[in-house]
Amino acid sequence: MTELVFALAVGILTASGVWLLLRPRTFQVIIGLSLLSYAVNLFIFGMGRLRVGAPPVLENAEAVDPSLYADPLPQALVLTAIVISFAMTALFLVVLLASRGLTGTDHVDGQEDPQ
Amino acid sequence: MSSGMPLLAIVALPFIGSLVAAFLRQDARNGAAFLAGTVALCATILTAVQYPAVHRGAVLRAGVEWIPTLGLDFTLRMDGFTWLFTMLVTGIGFLVALYARYYMSPSDPVPRFFAFLLAFMGAMLGIVLSGNLIQLVFFWELTSLFSFLLIGYWHHNASARDGARMALTVTATGGLCLLVGVLLIGHIVGSWDLDQVLSSGGKVRSSSLYLPALILVLLGALTKSAQFPFHFWLPHAMAAPTPVSAYLHSATMVKAGVFLLTLLWPVLSGTEAWFYIVVTAGLCTLVLGAYAAIFQQDLKGLLAYSTISHLGLITLLLGLSSPLAAVAAIFHTINHATFKASLFMAAGIIDHESGTRDIRRLSGLFRFMPITATLAMVAAAAMAGVPLLNGFLSKEMFFAEAAAFHIDSLLDHSLPYFAMLASAFSVAYSLRFIHGVFFGPPPTDLPRTPHEPPHWMRFPVEFLVLACLLVGILPAMTIKPFLASAVWAVLGPDTPPYSLAVWHGFNEPLLMSIIALAGGILLYWLLQRYFAKGIEGPPLMRRLKGQRIFERILVTLSWKWARSLERLFGTQRLQPQLRLLVGFAVLAALWPLYRQGLEAGSRPSAAFDPAFLLLWIVGGLCAIGAAYQAKYHRLAAMVLLGGAGLVTCITFVWFSAPDLAITQLLVEIVTTVLILLGLRWLPKRIEIVGEGLALGLQARVRRARDLMLALAAGTGMTLIVYAMLTRPLHDSISRYFVENAYAEGGGRNVVNVLLVDFRGFDTFGEIVVLAVVAITVFSLLRRFRPAPESVDAPEQQQVQDAYDRARLDRAVGDTLADYLTIPATIMQWLFPVIIVVAIYLFLRGHDLPGGGFAAGVTMSIALILQYMAGGTRWIEARLRVRPISWIGLGLLCAAFTGMGAWLFSHPFLTSYFQYLEVPAIGKVPAATALLFDLGVFAVVVGATVLILIALAHQSVRSSRTARSSLSTVAPALTKGDA
């Protein structure tokens, strides 16, 4: 059940993100990318499987049983991904601001749709 | 391998020399020439002293491991044949370097020329001495590259640029074909090692892949050696300086093709396919090249076509597949190199001293430069195959082979006649070269008064002509042993008996020679009237220009087809691209599902808590709400996005990942600040009630389609995640990290140890990316021009300022400051607190959740809050944050920590740790990883603050510009503009 909720959460985040990604306004695309990055981060995190109440740091440092602890590898990957996705959001935001300044529109193509 | 050092030195010396020459001063003509000459001479001597070792079939080898797992080593080998070729490359290289010293003008960047020339020499030696086929192809492409650079040496000249490009396109394409061919051969043999390939000729010839491999290898060899129909690039390569033409385009590089054919002759030759393809190509080239050479008006053009024709002759001989023909091919390769290089140099001297190469303008030069003229005459006679010269000997062999019987076919029967015809042509063009330039009335209106060149410029010609004479008169005493060892290396026990005597009695080849000589003289005499008209290009073939065909193909391929493909499949619009991308991703994920089905796994479920379900009901609604509101209600969408982020953050805590939760929470805060700063510059968009109903059909279809895509993507992700989560996790590398985090990294927080120790190099890459992004944002914003309607201060601020201005007792900005009084006070008080939290998070990171990333973001929040509380000007008057210095110092700190490991001869970023006993505090961990984490911390602080502050500054800057341009808008902002 927990797994199902988690899976649905990733699904909803993805669907909202993809919907926004396909919209014409740059702000929508930024929000979409952020939602999508939540989804992807949760997805990668889920690769280590869900464990409730597993100790996050080593207790008895001498004899370690890996099966007791949460999987650190996906966590390390996601940790850097969170920071990098902030950087990408910032870059994209600035590019869209510059593009709006240059073209006078916030359409993703720099010009309004022909129709 | 003690015998290997000289071989390595022979190949490495020119490259080293090239590097040195590249760093010489622009005007160091003598220095560069001296360097090149010395290098070439050393290589020649080194090669010469190897002769006793390769004599009689021995093979020298040298090797360095390259990719041992693929069975690829960097190997050099030298046998009798490659020894001869190495002598040719290095010896003529020396002569050309000497000649070029006088040929090149002091106003040209001469060191660059010699750098290219030496590099080319190294690449050519690499081809010749390669002991494995892949390596050979690598050097092969290098020669194409340096030939390109050398042809385009006078890059201000359009024809040099075009010629260079054409030569590169043709030969490099051929090189790619060769690579594939070589890969096929390697596949058949099971190894790319030349010795193994040479010993498995039968296996290759009987393989079903033989024909494709043969065709591909031939494409490489024939393009390189300018064989019909790929010959057209060589005449255009004559735009190169003449020493280059003498060296690359007559003596060495164009010989690479025939060299390869000779090298692989024992493996590939002897089949019908080989005979028909190679002989046909060689014959066409031989006859057409010689024919075209007669009618050239440019001295170098004449020599270029003559080179093409002679290369055709060698190719033809190799195609005949008889051992005697192979002997003749090897012999002619050497002879051609000597007389053609000397002729090119002579042509260069004529050009240099008289100012033109046009045969129509030159005449009677004998009286001005008798010595050069005599030398050129001897060399041209060798080219025409006059007795007592080296060209005669190999041409006799050629005639004998042409007349001999090979494969019963029309091609074979017609060979002797074509051979005589081509030979007569070559007599005619040699005569034209000599008679047209050196005899006749004295020249009129030459750009310069011709005279003899400096002695050392003529020396290489003298040397080569002397060689032609010596070999031609006394073959047994000069070339015989060297030729014998070369032939033995290629043919081995199949070496046929042959004789190098000048006089074999009155036989068939001699008769053919006499007919050809007489025919050539007659032809030249008959053509006198035609030459007098001075028409450009050969009759009958004038319209057939390889160059034009080549250009048309290039234009079609790279322009017309590319454009129409782009029109068909390309779009400059983002949405269709993203739609395709998402669509393909969905389809790609569907395919395995369709093949294998999808079912839940057997892993026991984690304990379920209804609170988690409630949590994600909120999270899901937030996400959907954000998607719904992002068009008209940006602030709402941003708040909802933050809600989804918070729920994500709680999920991390829920499933035992406190590190992630901390980072997520902190990043959530800075992201919100970031987007808030951006909102101000976006256009206003107000929802019109009922607009949704008035949507056109097209828009509705588009939305429905996007909704379907989004739902498909979401459903797909849900299914995949569910299937994954219900399956047990197999043993992964995580086990190693958990088990060794404390023992080797000295930390209890495995995630942090992973980041700063085990995978420190990855983290280093990440912070570099972060730094690059921050600096990119900074520089993009430096030239930021906001849209005109966004320049004014926000509406609310204008109202507040207007109120301030209306009241005498208030200064502009007071209202704004009043609005923020309480939060600002709290924020200012919190400043030290947050810094302490940041330090705390940083210090405990190695053992408890926290670390450089989290601490860095916390620290930047502390700074940003001050900006928000006090306003940009206020804070910058009191506190100078230098984010770029933070970034730089952070990167340096991380890099130097990593490099510190070198001092203890460990690899980059090896960490060291120890627990120190500090009085009153107790045991404190001291790991070098902490220093690395400090670098991460500093970069994160610097990057985050730089991005946010750069964005915040836009409000100040643009209001300032607005103020200066529009005097009606009163001072708008002083405080709180961040």
Keywords:
heterodimer, A: 115 residues, mainly alpha, Helix Hairpins, 3 helices, B: 978 residues, two-stranded antiparallel sheet, two-stranded antiparallel ribbon
Give the secondary structure arrangement, pairings included.
The complex is a heterodimer of chains A (115) and B (978).
Chain A: H1 2-21, H2 26-46, H3 72-103
Helix pairs in contact in A: 1-2, 2-3
Chain B: H1 4-22, H2 29-48, H3 51-54, E1 60-67, E2 72-78, H4 80-103, H5 110-129, H6 133-151, H7 158-189, H8 194-198, H9 201-206, H10 210-224, H11 233-236, H12 242-251, H13 255-263, H14 265-268, H15 272-294, H16 299-319, H17 323-354, H18 370-384, H19 390-403, H20 410-438, H21 455-473, H22 480-491, H23 508-526, H24 528-532, H25 546-569, H26 574-596, H27 610-629, H28 634-654, H29 658-679, H30 697-725, H31 734-745, H32 750-758, H33 760-782, H34 795-806, H35 814-819, H36 821-844, H37 852-870, H38 872-878, H39 883-903, E3 913-918, E4 922-927, H40 928-965
Antiparallel strand pairs in B: 1-2, 3-4
Helix pairs in contact in B: 1-2, 1-5, 2-4, 2-5, 4-5, 4-12, 4-17, 4-21, 4-22, 5-6, 6-7, 7-10, 10-13, 10-15, 12-17, 13-16, 15-16, 15-20, 16-17, 16-20, 17-18, 17-19, 17-21, 17-22, 18-20, 18-21, 19-20, 19-21, 19-23, 20-23, 26-30, 27-28, 28-29, 29-37, 29-40, 31-32, 32-33, 33-39, 33-40, 36-37, ...
